[in-house]
From TrEMBL:
<dbReference type="Pfam" id="PF13564">
    <property type="entry name" value="DoxX_2"/>
</dbReference>
<dbReference type="InterPro" id="IPR032808">
    <property type="entry name" value="DoxX"/>
</dbReference>
<feature type="transmembrane region" description="Helical">
    <location>
        <begin position="56"/>
        <end position="87"/>
    </location>
</feature>
<protein>
    <recommendedName>
        <fullName>DoxX family protein</fullName>
    </recommendedName>
</protein>
<keyword id="KW-1133">Transmembrane helix</keyword>
<feature type="transmembrane region" description="Helical">
    <location>
        <begin position="99"/>
        <end position="120"/>
    </location>
</feature>
<keyword id="KW-0472">Membrane</keyword>
<keyword id="KW-0812">Transmembrane</keyword>
């Protein structure tokens, strides 16, 4: 079970890292032209960058506390926050006609819920 939780948290961390880096370092116009990124055309540039920064922090929060042993409760808290983020992402993608990406977000939500459930202290 512990191995499955590490794999799930690592997967989510990679997803958060790549998504966050894209939102922080790629121009909004280029993001808007990419599949699944159409929503960024309607969003303020600061919002997109802030969302990316939060995703980068989530990548750290999903792994670093457990690796260092410092405040490991932050792992399930981060995973629970990721669940909420994915709900918003699903709503956004459905509104912009990207149902396929909403399904992908649902998969990420399920993985995050598994991490949150498995890592919360008993």
């Amino acid at each position: 079970m512990d191995l499955a939780l590490w794999i799930a948290a690592g997967l989510l961390a990679v997803v958060a890292l790549t998504g966050g880096a894209g939102k922080v370092f790629v121009r909004r116009e280029k993001l808007a032209a990419a599949p699944g990124g159409e929503w960024t055309a309607d969003a303020a540039p600061g919002f997109v960058k802030s969302l990316g920064a939060l995703e980068l922090l989530a990548a750290l929060g999903l792994v670093l506390p457990a690796v260092t042993g410092i405040a490991p409760v932050l792992v399930p808290v981060t995973a629970a926050c990721w669940v909420l983020l994915m709900v918003g992402a699903m709503i956004t993608h459905v509104r912009h006609g990207s149902a396929g990406f909403a399904v992908l977000n649902l998969a990420y939500l399920a993985v995050a819920a598994f991490v949150a459930w498995g890592r919360f202290p008993a």
